[in-house]
Known about the structure:
Strand order of the largest sheet of chain A: 6-4-7-8-3-9-10-11-12
Order of helices and strands of chain A: EHEEHEHEHEHEHEEEEEH
CATH class of the largest domain in chain B: Alpha Beta
CATH architecture of the largest domain in chain B: 3-Layer(aba) Sandwich
Oligomer: heterodimer
Amino acid sequence: MRIVDALPAPVAQPEAGFWASGIASLDKALAGGLGYGQVHEIYAAEPDDASSAAGFVTGLAVGMCMGRGRAKEKARQPLLWLREQRLVQSAGILQAGGWAELGGAPGHGLVGLVPDTLSLLRAAAEALHCGKLGAVILEGWGAMRALDLTASRRLVLAAEKSGVPLLLLRVDARPVPSAARTRWQVASAPSRALPGNAPGLPTFDLTLLRQRSGPCGLDWRLEWDRDQRQFREAPLSGAVVSVPVDRPLADRADAAEQERVAGAGRYRAA
Amino acid sequence: MQGQAGTAPPDTAEGMPLPLAMIARVRGALRLCAVDARAGALGIAPGMTLADARALEPELVVAEMDAGADRHWLERLARHCLDWTPRVSLAAPDGITLDIAGVDHLFGGEAGLCAQVEDGMAGIGMALRWAAASTPEAAQALARHGALPVWDEREAIRALPVLALGLDGESTLALNRAGLKRVGDLTVLPAAAIAARFGVGAVSALSRLTGEELAPIDALRDPEPLHFERRFAEPIGLQATIAAVFMEVLQEAAGVLGERDLGGRRFVLTLHRSDGARHRLDIETGRPTRDPALVLRLFDERIASLADPLDPGFGYDRISLFLPATDPLPASQARLDGEERDEVALAELIERLGTRLGAGCLRRLVPRESHLPEQAQFALPAMEERAPATWPRPPEGEPPMRPLFLFDPPRRVEVLAEVPDGPPHRFRWRRKLHEVRLYEGPERIANEWWRHKGGECAGQGGLTRDYYRIEDARGRRYWIFRHGLYDEKPDPHWYLHGVFA
């Protein structure tokens, strides 16, 4: 029995826009950019890439939250991050410090910790009805059998109605058929070293596995620029220093070492 | 009868208790509002500036005046006084008036009652000045300004200073300047003359003090509990009827809440079935509300999340709604720019998810003052923590210095590193070997030695951590630390504390 038969439908805000990532080839492949009010699936290539994929999703969500708010209002729209309670042990505790380091506003955001997969999906569907959120991140580990075609279609409908994008982060899972608009695979990539051999900006190897009515199978290597809140294409490591033509290399041993290190990151080019 | 009680507990330092004063900012200057007996004995009086008081007594302990807390405490004391009489009223900021007419014989007469009140207040550590008189105003005035104990009430009132009339500062000064120092000086004057020179307020205060005029008593009483109910001659089972009745009950509740400027925080709905079974549903809202539609929607969520659906059976013969928790909610006007609507929509989402998944499910991350990474944040329930927190913005042009995920406890890893202070070269984690390609560090984070007993001595403050931000050959970025310097511990262990994006 339900007390209310037909609840008044929440105010629909069909803002069918795109968030342009700022990378020409990527936006072209997506015919404009990542769409608001849609479901995007992001798979971590390996379980060890979970944090990279999460970082990519955070960057995406931060960018989308920024892009959606009207220019005059400074307050960014809040981001909702839904996780399962058990992930706290295996995947670690979500840190507001790290979130802020990726350009987000964790103080405005909300973190939902739910007991199981079913409540995770329910919470996501419920949250997508609220048009005031900037984006919803759903972090799912493992196969997630509850997320079948019906469930994902339901999420898509909810997202379309409110215009809030749902970023579905999948770790330790194989892609299965779903109603999502795009499907990505993210792996961590070697970053461009800072002076002093320090690790640089977060770098990702990104593959567009599938998208509805558009090209797929493309890949990019991107860096997340927190200050601009945009992705940019990462130059291939090792290609930073140009080789002088008219004189011999100063230190051949060093160059060989650089080649060796960069080799790991070059597999994409082959 | 009246009790006047200081509301601040004495602050004790080592050995001798130090004099205490409460301060507040008055027109930009810090002034004393209340002082304790020790400070009073040193010549420190309320109204002095803090600087003057410090000149008299450098070791004066001061605390901020908190009027809200004082009021709350006074109310609690007044409720405590309901043991003696049903009619208790507050004389803010520091008095309570008990109407003891007709109840004193239960406690062995006036003297017995007063002794009991004195004992009761002394039992909870309150200093008390009291007086009994025939009107509340007279009792308050005698307790505050009179010479105690009072033998002859009329004489005592006559002997009171004109300050006891409770007039404003200007009128009191005018009375004093006119040579009228005592209340007795005024009682012999014709009322018309007093009214002409010092205002009608002086006349009415005087007649209330002397008992010629009686003022109404604003007695403390508990508001009626918010309980709404519908009984039916015939049990009802139709879903539409139940919904209609429930809406009606909610609207009645909303009316009462609106009159009292309250909003409900908890709603308990009980459905009494004709065979005696009872279904109890309760919901909580994140912010006080009296919107029937919202409450109805929350109850709907609650019913949808029940393991076994509600079964009306042969029908319900009683439906009751009880509001155990309420908060003040003044009537508000919507803003034109619609910004408030965003907040309201978000608050509704928090409530809906809280009702469906449990109140603690949605959290807000709030910074905490600690430099230990695992203690740098609180995850507080979003129901209670409404306002967005502000996190410091990271400096521009730097890569992320803090990881996105933190392991608690840190995971032990086997590390090959240079001794004593070198960075890790390779490490084994989750049965995989990781070659370190890039590193930055160490970032040295000391333990919180001030929390350990004897931590200020060298070597007793706990182990220092040396954090390295590293990237392995596959491009994964980790936060690894060595727990302890080599001179603190012979063979320190390495731990993986977090992972970066």
